[in-house]
Amino acid sequence: MAEHGPMGPPETSESLSMSSARAAVLGAVRERGRLCSVREIAQDFDLHPNTVREHLDALLEQGMVARETSSPTGRGRPALLYRATSGSADAIRDYELLTDVLAEQISRTSDPEAMALAAGRSWAQRTLEEKGGTTRLADLPGEIGRLGFEPTMPDEHGTILLRSCPILDAAKRHPDVVCTVHLGYVQALVEAAGHDAADTELTPMGDPQGCALRVAAIARENPRR
């Protein structure tokens, strides 16, 4: 029976944060240990190059692979080449361990929820500063996806399902801290987009597919006709 809630990060003992096909594409890039083309990977799995390209683009967004342009060899555009990033597997586990330690420390404070919420907001604000300080409500799923949560598009109620969690083990051990940090992050993005975030809610493991993030501002901006 499938576990209720989101999947975890890649290469953990429990689950993958990506489809088996995407994980296989990432594994093929890692095994080569060099720059490789879409066509090479497509031949490995007998997949259409466009399918492989979609997987690689998603892995690129998650920081699992890097992309470079090959040197021109004639007419036509140079090929795009991909390699696995150095921070793929071991670094993810190290960051999860760090998150677990920090969550444990926050949970021992007098008001862990307030501290976690403030930390999430500060995280989002720093991220926005690096990107120019502005965002749009329509960009929210993409912003969340960039962090590895594999969000669905919002439904008519403004609910987004987070189908994976990059630090699932830490979130399970300290949901009051880790999930609240993520809530603070989203609230800050909603406010930066010029909307009220007071009724933004995150329900950990709130759906068979993952955690349920409800952003009421999305429903208000796009009411059902």
Provide structural commentary.
- 48% of the residues lie in helices and 13% in strands.
- The protein is α+β, with helices and mostly antiparallel strands and 225 residues long.
- It has 9 helices and 6 strands.
- It starts with 19 loop residues before the first helix and ends with a helix.
- Mean pLDDT is 83; it is low at 10-17.
- The longest helix is centred in the middle third of the chain and has 19 residues, at 112-130.
Main structural class:
alpha+beta
Give the CA-CA distance, first to last residue.
Answer: 39 Å
Oligomer: single chain
Strand content: 5-15%
Largest sheet: 3 strands, antiparallel
Order of helices and strands: HEHHEEHHHEHHEEH
Structure described in brief:
The protein is α+β, with helices and mostly antiparallel strands and 225 residues long. The chain contains nine helices and six strands, in the order H-E-H-H-E-E-H-H-H-E-H-H-E-E-H.
Write out key terms for the chains shown.
225 residues; alpha+beta; three-stranded antiparallel beta sheet; 9 helices; 6 strands; globular
Could you outline the blueprint of secondary structure elements for this entry?
Blueprint: H1 20-32, E1 36-37, H2 38-45, H3 49-61, E2 65-69, E3 80-84, H4 90-107, H5 112-130, H6 140-146, E4 159-162, H7 168-173, H8 175-192, E5 200-207, E6 210-215, H9 216-221
Antiparallel strand pairs: 1-3, 2-3, 4-6, 5-6
